[in-house]
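Help needed: design a sequence for this.
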């Protein structure tokens, strides 16, 4: 459930299409997401993951990584969506960092 004051920030790095400014408000964010999905004439999939300790969705288009959406949740509502599509920032998104104890 989107919080009424939810904010979506996207980053295409000037390489991929992204919103030029933050999108604020549940209605506007929902319209942006649904509008983007409606235009997709490709195989669009998502898989859950964790990014920087936050829940996230790894987005694939035709099997290739298109971006990752990090999700901020407060009081059981989504208050922030951070959609990174910039390929320069996605180079290590699938690599796992092993945790070790010393």
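Sure. Designed sequence:
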């Amino acid at each position: 459930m989107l919080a009424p004051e939810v904010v979506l920030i996207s980053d295409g790095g000037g390489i991929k299409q992204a919103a030029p400014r933050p999108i604020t408000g549940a209605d506007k964010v929902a319209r942006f997401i649904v509008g983007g999905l409606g235009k997709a004439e490709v195989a669009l999939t998502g898989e859950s993951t964790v990014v920087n300790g936050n829940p996230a969705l790894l987005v694939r288009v035709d099997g290739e990584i298109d971006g990752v959406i990090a999700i901020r949740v407060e009081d059981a509502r989504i208050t922030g969506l951070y959609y990174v599509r910039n390929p320069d920032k996605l180079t290590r998104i699938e690599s796992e960092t092993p945790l070790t104890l010393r």
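The chain has one helix and six strands.
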